[in-house]
Amino acid sequence: MTDVEEAIIRAHRDEWARVVATLTRRFGDLDIAEEAAAEAFATAVERWQSDGVPPGPGAWLTTTANRKAIDRIRRENKRDDKQKEARTVYDDDPPEPLGVIDDDRLRLIFTCCHPALALETRVALTLRMVGGLTVPEIARAFLVAESAMGQRITRAKAKIKAARIPYRVPSAEDLPARVSGVLAALFLVFNEGYLATGPDTDPLRHDLTAEAIRLTRLIRALLPDDGEVAGLLALMLLTEARRTARVSATGELVALDEQDRGAWDQDLIAEGHRLVRERLAAAAAGVAPGRYQILAAINAVHTSARDIRDTDWSQILALYDQLVRVDPSPIVALNRAIAVAELDGPEVALATVDRLEDKLAGYHPYHVTRADLLRRLGRGAESRSAYDKAIELAGNTAETAYLTRRRDQLV
Protein backbone atom coordinates (compact mmCIF):
# COMPACT_ATOMS: atom_id res chain seq x y z
CA MET A 1 0.00 0.00 0.00
CA THR A 2 1.36 3.45 -0.96
CA ASP A 3 1.68 6.39 1.42
CA VAL A 4 -1.15 8.17 -0.39
CA GLU A 5 -3.46 5.17 -0.07
CA GLU A 6 -2.69 4.97 3.63
CA ALA A 7 -3.36 8.71 3.99
CA ILE A 8 -6.76 8.37 2.30
CA ILE A 9 -7.73 5.42 4.49
CA ARG A 10 -6.65 7.33 7.58
CA ALA A 11 -8.53 10.45 6.43
CA HIS A 12 -11.69 8.44 5.83
CA ARG A 13 -11.39 6.92 9.28
CA ASP A 14 -10.73 10.24 11.01
CA GLU A 15 -12.69 12.76 8.95
CA TRP A 16 -15.76 11.08 7.42
CA ALA A 17 -18.17 11.88 10.25
CA ARG A 18 -16.83 15.41 10.64
CA VAL A 19 -17.23 16.19 6.93
CA VAL A 20 -20.74 14.70 6.75
CA ALA A 21 -21.80 16.52 9.92
CA THR A 22 -20.46 19.86 8.68
CA LEU A 23 -22.25 19.53 5.35
CA THR A 24 -25.48 18.42 7.01
CA ARG A 25 -25.46 21.52 9.17
CA ARG A 26 -24.88 23.81 6.19
CA PHE A 27 -27.24 22.21 3.70
CA GLY A 28 -29.78 20.45 5.88
CA ASP A 29 -29.83 17.39 3.62
CA LEU A 30 -28.26 14.03 4.50
CA ASP A 31 -28.27 12.87 0.88
CA ILE A 32 -26.35 15.92 -0.28
CA ALA A 33 -23.94 15.63 2.64
CA GLU A 34 -23.21 11.95 2.08
CA GLU A 35 -22.84 12.16 -1.69
CA ALA A 36 -20.66 15.26 -1.55
CA ALA A 37 -18.43 13.65 1.10
CA ALA A 38 -18.10 10.49 -1.00
CA GLU A 39 -17.24 12.57 -4.09
CA ALA A 40 -14.64 14.50 -2.10
CA PHE A 41 -12.92 11.28 -1.06
CA ALA A 42 -13.05 10.01 -4.65
CA THR A 43 -11.44 13.26 -5.80
CA ALA A 44 -8.77 12.83 -3.13
CA VAL A 45 -7.88 9.44 -4.57
CA GLU A 46 -7.13 11.11 -7.92
CA ARG A 47 -5.65 14.43 -6.79
CA TRP A 48 -3.46 13.32 -3.92
CA GLN A 49 -1.64 10.85 -6.14
CA SER A 50 -0.40 13.69 -8.34
CA ASP A 51 -0.44 16.70 -5.99
CA GLY A 52 0.56 14.98 -2.77
CA VAL A 53 -1.32 14.74 0.50
CA PRO A 54 -2.34 18.24 1.69
CA PRO A 55 -1.07 19.44 5.08
CA GLY A 56 -4.64 19.53 6.43
CA PRO A 57 -6.52 16.57 4.87
CA GLY A 58 -9.70 17.24 6.87
CA ALA A 59 -9.92 20.87 5.78
CA TRP A 60 -9.17 19.91 2.17
CA LEU A 61 -11.91 17.27 2.19
CA THR A 62 -14.45 19.62 3.80
CA THR A 63 -13.75 22.39 1.29
CA THR A 64 -13.91 19.97 -1.64
CA ALA A 65 -17.13 18.40 -0.34
CA ASN A 66 -18.72 21.84 0.08
CA ARG A 67 -17.94 22.66 -3.54
CA LYS A 68 -19.33 19.30 -4.67
CA ALA A 69 -22.52 19.99 -2.72
CA ILE A 70 -22.93 23.42 -4.28
CA ASP A 71 -22.38 21.94 -7.74
CA ARG A 72 -25.05 19.34 -7.11
CA ILE A 73 -27.54 21.92 -5.83
CA ARG A 74 -26.98 24.07 -8.92
CA ARG A 75 -27.25 21.08 -11.24
CA GLU A 76 -30.52 20.02 -9.72
CA ASN A 77 -31.84 23.56 -9.94
CA LYS A 78 -32.86 23.72 -6.32
CA ARG A 79 -35.14 26.48 -5.16
CA ASP A 80 -33.77 29.90 -4.23
CA ASP A 81 -33.46 29.27 -0.52
CA LYS A 82 -31.20 26.31 -1.25
CA GLN A 83 -29.01 28.53 -3.40
CA LYS A 84 -28.89 30.97 -0.51
CA GLU A 85 -27.89 28.14 1.83
CA ALA A 86 -25.13 27.14 -0.54
CA ARG A 87 -23.65 30.62 -0.47
CA THR A 88 -23.23 30.38 3.30
CA VAL A 89 -20.25 28.14 2.58
CA TYR A 90 -18.29 31.28 1.79
CA ASP A 91 -19.53 33.30 4.76
CA ASP A 92 -16.77 34.26 7.15
CA ASP A 93 -19.04 34.46 10.19
CA PRO A 94 -19.07 31.27 12.27
CA PRO A 95 -22.42 29.49 12.51
CA GLU A 96 -24.41 29.97 15.69
CA PRO A 97 -24.39 27.03 18.12
CA LEU A 98 -27.50 24.91 17.70
CA GLY A 99 -27.57 23.19 21.08
CA VAL A 100 -26.25 23.01 24.62
CA ILE A 101 -23.05 21.42 23.32
CA ASP A 102 -21.82 22.80 20.01
CA ASP A 103 -20.72 19.58 18.34
CA ASP A 104 -21.76 18.82 14.78
CA ARG A 105 -21.39 15.07 15.14
CA LEU A 106 -23.54 14.97 18.28
CA ARG A 107 -26.26 16.88 16.43
CA LEU A 108 -25.91 14.47 13.53
CA ILE A 109 -26.45 11.41 15.72
CA PHE A 110 -29.57 12.95 17.29
CA THR A 111 -30.86 13.64 13.78
CA CYS A 112 -30.19 10.04 12.70
CA CYS A 113 -31.81 8.75 15.91
CA HIS A 114 -35.04 10.73 15.75
CA PRO A 115 -37.99 8.78 17.22
CA ALA A 116 -39.90 9.19 13.95
CA LEU A 117 -37.61 6.45 12.62
CA ALA A 118 -37.76 2.78 13.63
CA LEU A 119 -35.04 1.80 16.10
CA GLU A 120 -33.18 -0.49 13.67
CA THR A 121 -33.30 2.23 11.03
CA ARG A 122 -31.85 4.78 13.47
CA VAL A 123 -28.96 2.47 14.25
CA ALA A 124 -28.28 1.65 10.59
CA LEU A 125 -28.36 5.32 9.57
CA THR A 126 -26.00 6.21 12.42
CA LEU A 127 -23.55 3.50 11.40
CA ARG A 128 -23.56 4.91 7.86
CA MET A 129 -23.52 8.66 8.53
CA VAL A 130 -21.56 8.85 11.79
CA GLY A 131 -19.55 5.64 11.68
CA GLY A 132 -18.79 5.79 7.96
CA LEU A 133 -19.51 2.08 7.52
CA THR A 134 -20.37 0.82 4.07
CA VAL A 135 -23.80 -0.59 3.31
CA PRO A 136 -22.39 -4.16 3.05
CA GLU A 137 -20.75 -3.80 6.48
CA ILE A 138 -24.01 -2.58 8.02
CA ALA A 139 -25.98 -5.36 6.30
CA ARG A 140 -23.64 -7.95 7.82
CA ALA A 141 -24.07 -6.39 11.27
CA PHE A 142 -27.86 -6.71 10.94
CA LEU A 143 -27.78 -10.11 9.18
CA VAL A 144 -29.86 -8.78 6.27
CA ALA A 145 -29.38 -8.52 2.51
CA GLU A 146 -27.27 -5.62 1.24
CA SER A 147 -30.06 -4.41 -1.07
CA ALA A 148 -32.57 -4.35 1.79
CA MET A 149 -30.20 -2.38 3.99
CA GLY A 150 -29.49 0.11 1.22
CA GLN A 151 -33.21 0.71 0.77
CA ARG A 152 -33.68 1.11 4.53
CA ILE A 153 -31.02 3.81 4.72
CA THR A 154 -32.33 5.60 1.63
CA ARG A 155 -35.87 5.67 3.04
CA ALA A 156 -34.60 6.96 6.38
CA LYS A 157 -32.80 9.90 4.76
CA ALA A 158 -35.88 10.70 2.69
CA LYS A 159 -38.08 10.63 5.79
CA ILE A 160 -35.75 13.00 7.65
CA LYS A 161 -35.92 15.40 4.71
CA ALA A 162 -39.68 15.15 4.20
CA ALA A 163 -40.48 15.50 7.90
CA ARG A 164 -38.02 18.38 8.26
CA ILE A 165 -36.43 16.70 11.25
CA PRO A 166 -34.20 19.37 12.82
CA TYR A 167 -30.43 19.07 12.94
CA ARG A 168 -29.90 19.81 16.63
CA VAL A 169 -29.47 18.38 20.09
CA PRO A 170 -32.97 18.23 21.62
CA SER A 171 -34.01 20.61 24.38
CA ALA A 172 -33.39 19.53 27.98
CA GLU A 173 -36.98 18.37 28.51
CA ASP A 174 -36.90 16.25 25.32
CA LEU A 175 -33.50 14.64 25.96
CA PRO A 176 -34.50 11.73 28.24
CA ALA A 177 -37.09 10.43 25.77
CA ARG A 178 -34.63 10.62 22.89
CA VAL A 179 -31.52 9.21 24.49
CA SER A 180 -32.32 5.45 24.48
CA GLY A 181 -32.18 5.22 20.69
CA VAL A 182 -28.95 7.22 20.63
CA LEU A 183 -27.34 4.90 23.19
CA ALA A 184 -28.38 1.84 21.16
CA ALA A 185 -26.80 3.34 18.05
CA LEU A 186 -23.59 4.30 19.84
CA PHE A 187 -23.34 0.82 21.34
CA LEU A 188 -23.43 -0.71 17.86
CA VAL A 189 -20.94 1.83 16.52
CA PHE A 190 -18.63 0.84 19.38
CA ASN A 191 -19.20 -2.88 18.74
CA GLU A 192 -18.28 -2.48 15.09
CA GLY A 193 -15.00 -0.92 16.19
CA TYR A 194 -14.48 -3.55 18.90
CA LEU A 195 -14.75 -6.38 16.37
CA ALA A 196 -15.24 -5.20 12.78
CA THR A 197 -17.60 -7.30 10.68
CA GLY A 198 -15.92 -6.67 7.33
CA PRO A 199 -13.15 -8.89 5.95
CA ASP A 200 -11.46 -5.93 4.23
CA THR A 201 -11.13 -3.66 7.27
CA ASP A 202 -8.86 -3.57 10.29
CA PRO A 203 -10.07 -6.23 12.74
CA LEU A 204 -10.22 -3.58 15.50
CA ARG A 205 -11.28 -0.07 14.51
CA HIS A 206 -10.05 2.34 17.16
CA ASP A 207 -11.55 5.26 15.23
CA LEU A 208 -15.05 3.90 15.83
CA THR A 209 -14.55 2.97 19.48
CA ALA A 210 -12.93 6.34 20.19
CA GLU A 211 -15.73 8.27 18.48
CA ALA A 212 -18.42 6.26 20.29
CA ILE A 213 -16.72 6.98 23.63
CA ARG A 214 -16.32 10.69 22.77
CA LEU A 215 -20.00 11.07 21.87
CA THR A 216 -21.12 9.11 24.94
CA ARG A 217 -19.04 11.45 27.11
CA LEU A 218 -20.85 14.41 25.55
CA ILE A 219 -24.24 12.82 26.24
CA ARG A 220 -23.16 12.18 29.83
CA ALA A 221 -22.37 15.90 30.12
CA LEU A 222 -25.94 16.59 28.96
CA LEU A 223 -27.48 13.94 31.27
CA PRO A 224 -25.11 13.49 34.23
CA ASP A 225 -27.73 11.68 36.34
CA ASP A 226 -28.84 9.17 33.68
CA GLY A 227 -27.79 5.71 34.84
CA GLU A 228 -27.81 4.09 31.43
CA VAL A 229 -25.58 6.79 29.93
CA ALA A 230 -23.10 6.22 32.76
CA GLY A 231 -23.47 2.46 32.32
CA LEU A 232 -22.77 2.58 28.60
CA LEU A 233 -19.74 4.80 29.11
CA ALA A 234 -18.39 2.42 31.75
CA LEU A 235 -19.01 -0.57 29.48
CA MET A 236 -17.16 1.10 26.62
CA LEU A 237 -14.22 2.12 28.80
CA LEU A 238 -13.80 -1.33 30.36
CA THR A 239 -13.97 -2.95 26.93
CA GLU A 240 -11.65 -0.45 25.26
CA ALA A 241 -9.13 -0.96 28.08
CA ARG A 242 -8.41 -4.44 26.69
CA ARG A 243 -7.95 -3.34 23.07
CA THR A 244 -4.15 -3.53 22.78
CA ALA A 245 -4.15 -7.08 24.17
CA ARG A 246 -6.84 -8.39 21.84
CA VAL A 247 -4.82 -8.98 18.65
CA SER A 248 -1.46 -10.75 18.52
CA ALA A 249 1.61 -9.61 16.61
CA THR A 250 0.66 -12.11 13.89
CA GLY A 251 -2.81 -10.58 13.50
CA GLU A 252 -4.77 -13.23 15.38
CA LEU A 253 -7.53 -12.48 17.85
CA VAL A 254 -6.52 -13.20 21.45
CA ALA A 255 -9.32 -14.62 23.61
CA LEU A 256 -9.96 -13.14 27.06
CA ASP A 257 -8.45 -16.13 28.87
CA GLU A 258 -5.19 -15.76 26.88
CA GLN A 259 -4.75 -11.98 27.05
CA ASP A 260 -1.81 -10.28 28.75
CA ARG A 261 -3.67 -8.46 31.50
CA GLY A 262 -0.62 -6.35 32.20
CA ALA A 263 -1.22 -4.69 28.81
CA TRP A 264 -4.71 -3.53 29.77
CA ASP A 265 -5.17 0.24 30.16
CA GLN A 266 -5.43 0.73 33.92
CA ASP A 267 -6.60 4.33 33.65
CA LEU A 268 -9.62 3.32 31.58
CA ILE A 269 -10.32 0.45 33.95
CA ALA A 270 -10.16 2.75 36.98
CA GLU A 271 -12.58 5.20 35.37
CA GLY A 272 -14.93 2.40 34.35
CA HIS A 273 -14.88 0.86 37.83
CA ARG A 274 -15.65 4.24 39.40
CA LEU A 275 -18.72 4.63 37.19
CA VAL A 276 -19.87 1.10 38.04
CA ARG A 277 -19.49 1.79 41.77
CA GLU A 278 -21.60 4.93 41.37
CA ARG A 279 -24.35 2.92 39.74
CA LEU A 280 -24.12 0.17 42.37
CA ALA A 281 -24.67 2.82 45.03
CA ALA A 282 -27.75 4.01 43.14
CA ALA A 283 -29.02 0.42 42.91
CA ALA A 284 -28.53 0.01 46.66
CA ALA A 285 -30.72 3.09 47.10
CA GLY A 286 -33.50 1.40 45.13
CA VAL A 287 -32.80 2.55 41.56
CA ALA A 288 -33.06 -0.52 39.34
CA PRO A 289 -30.12 -0.80 36.91
CA GLY A 290 -30.69 -1.04 33.18
CA ARG A 291 -29.07 -3.18 30.50
CA TYR A 292 -25.88 -1.15 30.02
CA GLN A 293 -25.28 -0.83 33.75
CA ILE A 294 -25.49 -4.60 34.23
CA LEU A 295 -23.22 -5.24 31.24
CA ALA A 296 -20.74 -2.75 32.70
CA ALA A 297 -20.85 -4.56 36.03
CA ILE A 298 -20.11 -7.87 34.29
CA ASN A 299 -17.11 -6.29 32.61
CA ALA A 300 -16.01 -4.81 35.93
CA VAL A 301 -15.86 -8.33 37.38
CA HIS A 302 -13.77 -9.53 34.42
CA THR A 303 -11.36 -6.59 34.66
CA SER A 304 -11.02 -6.96 38.43
CA ALA A 305 -9.45 -10.42 38.08
CA ARG A 306 -5.66 -10.37 37.80
CA ASP A 307 -5.77 -13.85 36.28
CA ILE A 308 -8.54 -15.70 34.44
CA ARG A 309 -8.52 -18.22 37.29
CA ASP A 310 -9.45 -15.45 39.73
CA THR A 311 -12.65 -14.57 37.86
CA ASP A 312 -15.72 -14.59 40.09
CA TRP A 313 -17.98 -16.61 37.81
CA SER A 314 -20.73 -16.90 40.41
CA GLN A 315 -21.03 -13.11 40.51
CA ILE A 316 -21.03 -12.96 36.71
CA LEU A 317 -23.80 -15.57 36.55
CA ALA A 318 -25.84 -13.62 39.12
CA LEU A 319 -25.47 -10.50 36.99
CA TYR A 320 -26.55 -12.40 33.87
CA ASP A 321 -29.59 -13.66 35.76
CA GLN A 322 -30.40 -10.03 36.47
CA LEU A 323 -29.76 -9.07 32.83
CA VAL A 324 -32.07 -11.80 31.52
CA ARG A 325 -34.93 -10.14 33.41
CA VAL A 326 -34.15 -6.81 31.75
CA ASP A 327 -33.21 -8.16 28.31
CA PRO A 328 -34.50 -11.72 27.70
CA SER A 329 -32.81 -11.98 24.30
CA PRO A 330 -31.19 -15.14 22.89
CA ILE A 331 -27.81 -13.36 22.77
CA VAL A 332 -27.96 -12.69 26.51
CA ALA A 333 -28.92 -16.33 27.05
CA LEU A 334 -25.90 -17.39 24.97
CA ASN A 335 -23.51 -15.25 27.00
CA ARG A 336 -25.06 -16.49 30.23
CA ALA A 337 -24.35 -20.06 29.10
CA ILE A 338 -20.61 -19.26 29.01
CA ALA A 339 -20.75 -18.43 32.73
CA VAL A 340 -22.81 -21.57 33.36
CA ALA A 341 -20.07 -23.65 31.70
CA GLU A 342 -17.52 -22.31 34.17
CA LEU A 343 -19.68 -23.16 37.19
CA ASP A 344 -21.72 -26.22 36.19
CA GLY A 345 -19.65 -27.64 33.36
CA PRO A 346 -19.79 -27.58 29.54
CA GLU A 347 -22.47 -30.28 29.25
CA VAL A 348 -25.04 -28.23 31.18
CA ALA A 349 -24.15 -25.12 29.17
CA LEU A 350 -24.35 -26.98 25.84
CA ALA A 351 -27.93 -28.03 26.55
CA THR A 352 -28.86 -24.35 26.90
CA VAL A 353 -26.90 -23.33 23.80
CA ASP A 354 -28.47 -26.02 21.63
CA ARG A 355 -31.93 -24.71 22.47
CA LEU A 356 -30.95 -21.37 20.90
CA GLU A 357 -30.14 -22.75 17.45
CA ASP A 358 -33.37 -21.65 15.74
CA LYS A 359 -32.84 -18.05 16.84
CA LEU A 360 -29.06 -17.78 16.43
CA ALA A 361 -28.19 -20.04 13.49
CA GLY A 362 -26.81 -17.08 11.51
CA TYR A 363 -24.97 -15.53 14.45
CA HIS A 364 -21.35 -16.62 14.40
CA PRO A 365 -20.67 -16.30 18.19
CA TYR A 366 -23.31 -18.99 18.68
CA HIS A 367 -21.20 -21.43 16.65
CA VAL A 368 -17.99 -20.24 18.37
CA THR A 369 -19.49 -20.94 21.80
CA ARG A 370 -20.83 -24.29 20.70
CA ALA A 371 -17.48 -25.29 19.16
CA ASP A 372 -15.68 -24.47 22.41
CA LEU A 373 -18.13 -26.41 24.56
CA LEU A 374 -17.96 -29.45 22.27
CA ARG A 375 -14.19 -29.21 22.32
CA ARG A 376 -14.18 -29.28 26.12
CA LEU A 377 -16.43 -32.35 26.05
CA GLY A 378 -14.01 -34.19 23.74
CA ARG A 379 -16.47 -34.29 20.82
CA GLY A 380 -13.88 -33.36 18.22
CA ALA A 381 -15.79 -34.01 14.98
CA GLU A 382 -18.81 -31.99 16.12
CA SER A 383 -16.53 -29.24 17.40
CA ARG A 384 -14.76 -29.08 14.04
CA SER A 385 -18.07 -28.74 12.24
CA ALA A 386 -19.10 -25.90 14.55
CA TYR A 387 -15.78 -24.14 13.98
CA ASP A 388 -16.28 -24.47 10.22
CA LYS A 389 -19.65 -22.74 10.48
CA ALA A 390 -18.23 -20.01 12.72
CA ILE A 391 -15.38 -19.37 10.26
CA GLU A 392 -17.85 -19.19 7.38
CA LEU A 393 -19.88 -16.50 9.17
CA ALA A 394 -17.15 -14.57 11.00
CA GLY A 395 -15.73 -12.17 8.37
CA ASN A 396 -13.24 -10.52 10.74
CA THR A 397 -9.73 -11.54 9.69
CA ALA A 398 -8.26 -11.72 13.20
CA GLU A 399 -11.13 -13.82 14.49
CA THR A 400 -11.01 -16.09 11.45
CA ALA A 401 -7.31 -16.72 12.08
CA TYR A 402 -7.99 -17.55 15.73
CA LEU A 403 -10.88 -19.90 14.94
CA THR A 404 -8.91 -21.63 12.20
CA ARG A 405 -6.05 -22.33 14.58
CA ARG A 406 -8.42 -23.65 17.23
CA ARG A 407 -10.11 -25.90 14.71
CA ASP A 408 -6.83 -27.22 13.34
CA GLN A 409 -5.62 -28.11 16.83
CA LEU A 410 -8.43 -30.61 17.21
CA VAL A 411 -7.32 -34.24 17.08
pLDDT averaged over residues: 89
How large is the share of residues in beta strands? under 5%
The tally of domains stands at: 4
Shape label: globular
Region (Disordered): 75-96
Biased composition (Basic and acidic residues): 75-90
Pfam families: DUF6596, Sigma70_r2, Sigma70_r4_2
Domain RNA polymerase sigma factor 70 region 4 type: 109-160
Keywords:
mainly alpha, 4 domains, Rna Polymerase Sigma Factor, Chain: A
Tell me about this structure.
It comes from Amycolatopsis oliviviridis. This is RNA polymerase subunit sigma-24. Keywords: Sigma factor, Transcription, Transcription regulation. Residues 75-96 are annotated as: Disordered. The structure is a single chain. The chain is mainly α and 411 residues long. It folds into four domains: 3-90, Rna Polymerase Sigma Factor, Chain: A, CATH 1.10.1740; 102-165 and 175-224, Arc Repressor Mutant, subunit A, CATH 1.10.10; 225-327; 329-411, Tetratricopeptide repeat domain (Serine Threonine Protein Phosphatase 5, Tetratricopeptide repeat, Alpha Horseshoe), CATH 1.25.40. The protein is built from 20 helices and no strands. It has helices spanning 3-27, 30-51, 57-75, 80-87, 104-112, 119-129, 135-142, 146-162, 175-194, 206-222, 227-240, 266-284, 291-304, 313-326, 330-344, 346-354, 357-360, 364-376, 380-394, 397-408. The longest helix has 25 residues, at 3-27. It is globular and about 70 Å long.
